[in-house]
Amino acid sequence: MEKLIKELRGLINFKKTIDMGDIILVAAKEPQMLMYGYVNNLKRDPTRKDEWYHLHFTILSIPPQKVTWTLRIPQMTGQEIFTMGGEERFVQPLDMGANVSATPTPQPEKKKTKGGLRRIK
Q1: pTM
Q2: Rounded distance between C-alpha atoms, residue 119 and residue 81, angstroms
Q3: For burial by CB atoms within 10 Å, which of 60, 61, 66, 76 has the most?
Q4: What are phi and psi of 16, to 5 degrees?
Q5: Which sign, positive or negative, has the C-alpha torsion 112, 114, 119, 121?
Q6: What angle do CA 83, 85, 90 make, to 5 degrees?
Q7: Which stretches does the entry tag as region Disordered (predicted)?
Q8: Where in the chain are the domains?
């Protein structure tokens, strides 16, 4: 699992925090899978003494599936690999804005040609 996570971190920009509305990547060792989820809600579990939270998310599959996992913040922000049913799992939110350029990309000049068509250099 550690090798997979290292490879994923080289390909994907992740966030270090989690909020409602985030897209998360979920990885599982058995059954081996990678999937995306949408965070619907995040609520503290009042029945536990320690800081545990109910992570309500929708697995982005066909059909979409709503799921609730009870995790600690380090487990849902990629700081810890955890187990469910004895199998390793990994969850971390994606940084969807990391590849967005702060400055606009210059557009090529457009010139008119005969017949009303434009040629782009």
Answers
A1: 0.76
A2: 54
A3: 76
A4: -100, -5
A5: negative
A6: 30
A7: 97-121
A8: 2-97
